[in-house]
């Protein structure tokens, strides 16, 4: 549907979208729709609240939700494909594209809406987002290894020859205690928004549309982003109480984004469809926060390698000062050798960087009264074999943090590039040119 037609539709507020969502499709997938008020970004963080009315274009050169300024809330869902029909799978991707395009504009998932349809039929939108705006919603789709081949290696949908070489189940890392019900998946959708109900509404409606073709395998809610993806955002804190996201790749670092986040045109001859896309690594870290809270402030800072107050490296300066790993302290280097920021730093990992986009979670409490809490780690990388697996291995083997975490969920997805008008998510994979 042309942009202008969208603009005249009723929003969930019941007011015209004209003047709210519009403008050109975001070239980099991160530019927001132009608002009458002139604010374009939901998550610009200069200390003020995010602009709840912001909308990010679903279509663009890259999928939104990667370099887009990290929103406050997450609902992440992994799906198993339950059909053997390629046509049905492609039809779902088309239907998801339409619904995602609408919901990211602040519109209902279906054209009729939650309350206007035939009273003898289920509505084409579930309704809990009535009255809510787009809230910076982004929907980012990924394909897991199981979409290409079943557990016996058989081609499921005629795309096995296009499976990227790096898209395999992640290896078992020391300390992994994976719950299969929080791991893996054929498809994933990362819904991020500045309103939790908007993110939940989006996943719920995509799951509803997928009934009979896919089934939710697992999902994860997250709050309090643990990253910054733009220099305009302030650094938030994780549940250990430390600033998290200081040294993350920012969208403004365009050369590093090209080098470390987007899959290049010649990276994988069999998987040319993935050029301009990325790999999404999801790792569910349960944090033993009750034990952590009994550690001294000095020890906590040694485990991270930064101060808890400002986030400055223990070698001195302020938050964004480069750490000096060779600076001596009273017992060895002032930033200990097993400090997290040293173990994962590019200087000790072949220069690789990753774009982190994780969220805090608290999923109630366990039988002993401890919080089932942690960090749902998400990273976007150009190649998991070079940019994630070696870093995670180093962390699992030598990082002081590992004593306070256990990994209970794990998954890897290939995230196709962005789409233009009249295209659907994954078209480059399913339609050979
Ligand atoms: C394999 C990659 C990483 C995992 C897994 C990971 C888990 C994890 N991290 C924190 C807390 C912090 N991480 C910080 C920095 C940081 N972390 C990684 C990678 C992984 N973290 C990188 C590449 C970096 C940046 C290193 C650098 O270039 O300096 C920080 C410091 C602040 C910051 O720069 O963001 C904190 C704090 C937790 C709690 C956690 C798992 C539970
Ligand atoms: Fe980290």
3D architecture notes:
The protein is an alpha+beta fold and 433 residues long. The protein is built from ten helices and eleven strands. The chain has helices spanning 3-8, 86-103, 196-209, 254-260, 289-292, 297-304, 340-343, 384-387, 389-398, 427-430, and strands at residues 73-81, 138-143, 187-193, 214-225, 278-287, 328-329, 332-333, 355-356, 359-365, 371-381, 405-415. The strands form two sheets. Strands 1, 2, 3, 4, 5, 8, 9, 10 and 11 form a nine-stranded antiparallel sheet that branches. A two-stranded antiparallel sheet has the order 6-7. The longest helix is centred in the first third of the chain and has 18 residues, at 86-103. The radius of gyration is 22 Å and the shape is globular. Mean pLDDT is 90; it is low at 1-47. Bound molecules: ligand L6N33NVT and fe (ii) ion. InterPro entries: Dimeric_a/b-barrel, Dyp_perox_C, Dyp_perox_N, Dyp_peroxidase, EfeB/EfeN, TAT_signal. Residues 63-223 form the Dyp-type peroxidase N-terminal domain. It is found in: Cell envelope. Its main location: other. Involved in the recovery of exogenous heme iron. Extracts iron from heme while preserving the protoporphyrin ring intact.
Structural descriptors:
single chain; 433 residues; alpha+beta; nine-stranded antiparallel sheet; 10 helices; 18% strand; globular; disordered N terminus; binds ligand L6N33NVT; binds fe (ii) ion
